[in-house]
Amino acid sequence: MLFDRVKPLDAILATAEKKSLHRSLGAFQLTMLGIGAVIGTGIFVLTAEAAQKAGPGMMISFIIAGFVCAVAALCYAEMAAMVPVSGSAYTYSYAVMGEVLAWMVGWALILEYAVAAGAVSVGWSGYVVGLIENAFHIDIPDMLVRGPFDGGTVNLPAMLIAGLVTWLLVIGTKESATVNAVLVAIKVTALTLFIILAVPVMNMQNFEPFSPLGFGGISAAAASIFFAYVGFDAVSTAAEETKNPQRNMPIGLIGSLAICTIFYLLVAAGVIGSVGAQPVMDGVGGAFEPGSRELASACAAIGDNAVVCSKEALAWTLREIGWPQIGNLIGLAAGLALPSVILMMMFGQTRIFFVMSRDGLLPEAFSKIHPRYNTPHVITVLTGIFVALFAAFFPVGQLANISNSGTLFAFAAVSIAVMMLRKTDPTRNRPFRTPAIAVTAPIAIAGCVYLFFSLDVKSQALFAIWAAIGLVVYYTYSRSRSHVGRGSVEVHEEDSDAPPTSVPPIS
Q1: pLDDT of residue 158
Q2: Residue 244: C-alpha distances to residues 15, 81, 340, 405, 502 (Å)
């Protein structure tokens, strides 16, 4: 029952062979695409979140999260090179573990992409509001730029950017290769500039105490920081547009992850060493929960004079060490570049919906294409509404943790799928083989489980509720309408796993 309704891998690959999508992405373009997807709210915003949980120990948190992502990336690379079709973990799971688990993975990916887009929207809001306040010397009321859990009422700028990206996706306005390259360059330049200015003024005394809340705090920070690495899996959804995916997909996945890890460690060292990163403590020796009213009140009492209180940690740090104008430039860079991450997350969301709808697991209306704009407008608007609501009322850290719960489930599923496929289909051509699969995949699975249980209890509970809702939807609606369940395994010749015009050629 659990592993029934496996979608034949040969049918999936036949679909890929029949596609008319142009293969134009090389290893360099994929690496740039990965860096563009990975570097975003995680490093720009969650640095303060991690500091409140782990203090300087967040350096270890970055390493832990990066290591788990690396072993998961190796499993992803084998599947992406062997099954170069869209749909990411959902498609892989359908081909290996059957429809029920594929549905749960797709359902988890919906949680990942939609909530992540909301988190990035909140991160964008923090930097843009900080830029406006410092550049024009005005004070915008917190009630208009923070959600109710974060000392405000509603985050209007976050809602605004989510709505704008939704509109762009509906009318079919997409990043060109040049725009994407420029935005990646802006983000990398901003981080490089930060490192150049912050690292030389490090004071090693700021690294002590290194772990004020113990290893539990480091683990909790790693579970949050994991969000800073999410995005590399979006590279695998571009497999159908990749030249020689068997070679280039692994390079793009692992290369982008390695580059981002180096940046993250240097940026974290710069923040800790230059201004300190000790958590704001309560009266009984514990730390206030990030994104809470209690922390907001404590920060107000100390005049927001701590990096953990900032909604724009990197820009705030540069202003504190005597570079206010460069700090404003960092804020401008985040304001310009982060919308592209929101766009990619929401695009990934619509793609997963599109694939699931085409498989009969979701209503056909979700894969309906606009007659004029040739985009999946129904599901794009629906996604946009939810993203805007998430962004309006939840703090960035909570959104990141909820998104992480769905991502960790999907990553673990892919790692399991790689091992299962080695057993069930050992002779299939594998252009890239995960090294030491018997060790790598179990470590990836164990790492995902470890990070999941390092998340806060609220995020774990929300994921459990979301999963339960998913099972109800599957057994009351999707299972009876599944094309595979009806014995119809279609090979699509004209359409792709995403709307035909929704992937910009990058060359």
Answers
A1: 94
A2: 17, 9, 26, 32, 21
